[in-house]
């Protein structure tokens, strides 16, 4: 018959468990800054291709049915959209900083678009 072993006498922690317990926390914001640097260095598209393609086709369906797209046209649209969004978020961040904040809000996006002349 097998005896029940209490957790006090359980196996000693593995090396991985020890590393996890020993690992230090990074300062708040460090990981965010690391991600910002990584994305600023990269040139790859950040929006997934298939969801973007479905969105383009759905929007185009409202204007004319049975439209066909070359893959290069979808790619050009995606490049353009991502470039626009990056630029908009840069301006939005400047609006938030001007308001002495570090967190962007919807009112910052609205102000950035208003200053660009995109919206009333």
TrEMBL record:
SMART domains per the UniProt record, alphabetical: H3
Core Histone H2A/H2B/H3 domain span: 28-115
Region (Disordered): 1-23
A Gene Ontology molecular function term of the record: DNA binding
Gene Ontology terms: cellular component: nucleosome
Keywords: Chromosome, DNA-binding, Nucleosome core
UniProt xrefs under SUPFAM superfamilies: Histone-fold (SSF47113)
InterPro entries according to UniProt: H2A/H2B/H3, Histone-fold, Histone_H3/CENP-A
Compartments where found: Chromosome
Similarity section: Belongs to the histone H3 family.
Name the record gives this protein: Histone h3
Species name: Ophiostoma piceae (strain UAMH 11346) (Sap stain fungus)
Origin organism lineage: Eukaryota, Fungi, Dikarya, Ascomycota, Pezizomycotina
């Amino acid at each position: 018959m097998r005896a029940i072993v209490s957790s006090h006498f359980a196996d000693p922690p593995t090396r991985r468990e020890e590393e996890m317990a020993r690992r230090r926390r990074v300062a708040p914001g460090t990981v965010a800054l690391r991600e910002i640097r990584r994305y600023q260095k990269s040139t790859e598209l950040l929006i997934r291709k298939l969801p973007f393609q479905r969105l383009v086709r759905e929007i185009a369906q409202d204007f004319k049915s049975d439209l066909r797209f070359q893959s290069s046209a979808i790619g050009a649209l995606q490049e353009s959209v991502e470039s626009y969004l990056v630029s908009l978020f840069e301006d939005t961040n400047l609006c938030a900083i001007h308001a002495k904040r570090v967190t962007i809000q919807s009112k910052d996006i609205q102000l950035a678009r208003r200053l660009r002349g995109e919206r009333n």
